[in-house]
Amino acid sequence: KEFAKQLEGWHVLGGTIGYWLIGLHALAGLYHHYVVRDNTLLRMMPKRG
Protein backbone atom coordinates (compact mmCIF):
# COMPACT_ATOMS: atom_id res chain seq x y z
CA LYS A 1 0.00 0.00 0.00
CA GLU A 2 2.80 2.37 0.82
CA PHE A 3 4.46 1.67 -2.53
CA ALA A 4 1.21 2.41 -4.39
CA LYS A 5 0.88 5.73 -2.56
CA GLN A 6 4.47 6.66 -3.41
CA LEU A 7 4.00 5.60 -7.01
CA GLU A 8 0.86 7.71 -7.27
CA GLY A 9 2.81 10.73 -6.02
CA TRP A 10 5.47 10.24 -8.67
CA HIS A 11 2.78 9.74 -11.31
CA VAL A 12 1.05 13.01 -10.40
CA LEU A 13 4.38 14.86 -10.33
CA GLY A 14 5.30 13.52 -13.77
CA GLY A 15 1.95 14.60 -15.18
CA THR A 16 2.28 18.08 -13.70
CA ILE A 17 5.78 18.49 -15.12
CA GLY A 18 4.55 17.25 -18.49
CA TYR A 19 1.73 19.78 -18.60
CA TRP A 20 4.12 22.61 -17.69
CA LEU A 21 6.54 21.56 -20.44
CA ILE A 22 3.73 21.45 -23.02
CA GLY A 23 2.54 24.92 -21.97
CA LEU A 24 6.02 26.41 -22.04
CA HIS A 25 6.65 24.87 -25.45
CA ALA A 26 3.46 26.44 -26.82
CA LEU A 27 4.36 29.82 -25.30
CA ALA A 28 7.84 29.63 -26.83
CA GLY A 29 6.29 29.02 -30.26
CA LEU A 30 3.98 32.01 -29.86
CA TYR A 31 6.87 34.14 -28.60
CA HIS A 32 8.89 33.33 -31.70
CA HIS A 33 5.91 34.04 -33.96
CA TYR A 34 4.73 37.34 -32.46
CA VAL A 35 7.78 38.85 -30.70
CA VAL A 36 10.86 37.59 -32.54
CA ARG A 37 8.88 37.43 -35.79
CA ASP A 38 10.83 34.57 -37.30
CA ASN A 39 9.28 31.70 -39.22
CA THR A 40 9.74 29.04 -36.53
CA LEU A 41 6.01 28.48 -36.06
CA LEU A 42 5.32 28.50 -39.80
CA ARG A 43 8.00 25.85 -40.40
CA MET A 44 6.20 23.52 -37.97
CA MET A 45 2.88 23.80 -39.82
CA PRO A 46 2.04 21.23 -42.50
CA LYS A 47 2.51 22.27 -46.10
CA ARG A 48 -0.62 23.23 -48.03
CA GLY A 49 -1.53 21.82 -51.40
Topology:
Layout: H1 2-36, H2 40-44
What does this structure look like?
With 49 residues, this protein is mainly α. It has one domain (2-44). 82% of the residues lie in helices and 0% in strands. It has 2 helices and no strands. It is elongated, with a radius of gyration of 18 Å. The N and C termini lie far apart (56 Å). The model has no long low-confidence stretch (mean pLDDT 94).
Structural class by helix and strand composition: mainly alpha
Count every helix, treating DSSP H or I runs of 4 or more residues as helices. 2
Radius of gyration, rounded? Answer: 18 Å
Distance between the termini: 56 Å
Q: Into which percentage range does the β-strand content fall?
A: under 5%
Parts with pLDDT < 50 across at least 5 consecutive residues: none
Report the count of strand segments. 0
GO biological process, one term: respiratory electron transport chain
Organism: Pseudomonas palleroniana
Membrane topology: Multi-pass membrane protein
Subcellular location: Cell membrane
Please provide a brief summary of the model.
With 49 residues, this protein is an all-alpha fold. The protein contains 2 helices and no strands. The longest helix is centred in the middle third of the chain and has 35 residues, at 2-36.
